[in-house]
Structure prediction request, 334 residues.
Amino acid sequence: MAAFSPPVPFDPAAASPGQRLAVGQLLAACYALAYPQDPPLLPEREAEGLLQPAPDEATDHFVVWDGDTALAYASLRSSRSQNLHKARAQLLVHPDWRRRGLGRALAGVLGAHARTQGKTAVTFFTINFAPAGEPFARSLGARVVLENRTSRLDLGAVSPELLRDWQRRPAEDPYRLHLWDTVPDEYLPRAADLMMVMNTAPRADAGEEDWIVTPEMVRGWEAEVAAAGERRLLLAAEDTRTGELAAYTEIFWSPERAALVYQGATAVRPAARGQKLGKWLKAAMLDAVRAECPGALWVRTNNAEENAAMLAINVQLGFQPWAQTLEWQLGGQG
Prediction:
């Protein structure tokens, strides 16, 4: 077995451009192996993304080096102000260096670091396209806390009649739609409040408290998306009787990887459910994708298997099961 240097902390801001690019190349190589049919990740973009902190988040990075080449990478992310017991982990080993103990070495470093930070629950994801991930997770003693269906939609196969039907609204409908790249200042507090509806979605950690979203966090996410060379389109339904934003959906798209669109969150306030707002938003967003995302061919989304309502909407639109994604947890409540 070839020897390798132990994992060491990695500070993207203090690292050289060449070191950041080496990590970006590793991330792109791992993605290409797991998703060979996808538009490839751009190493330069991945390197730039290491410099962009997420709002209210602390991220610690670790790398296994062979000279100037990054062989393996891991990160531990956590909020600075909420759910302080939790952290999210990512661990990747270059395809040419797997089965040599690098992943286990990184996992040990991450675990020790999480303990020193007082984290009692660490979550991470595996996907069946990288089949080594599940047995590795089990070997660490992790347990599955949420099963997710990753689905894919062929935009060319979507029924125009279905989209038109879902966008028909009753006479004197009190709701109107807004499509934004950047949330206008006048709507920013309302948008932040609306995003907290995602606290009603299935969650993995029984000990997790509801997340609080602030206007500053929304602006930070917008900056993060822009720095990654992406667009985020957010479609919100406003109740004109009160000015409250009642529902929203969002997508992420990069012109550099134009064929693929990522569907983000979709949420409807509990009090506004039963009025087909979710179907309206999803249909209107697909029309927006066709108009705003030239070259888009596919939409990919991820839903908890227990989220029957959203899965039903996606299936009616034509989304097909594409992969299984498992959320795992080490520690925390069972």
About this structure: The mean pLDDT is 95. The radius of gyration is 21 Å.
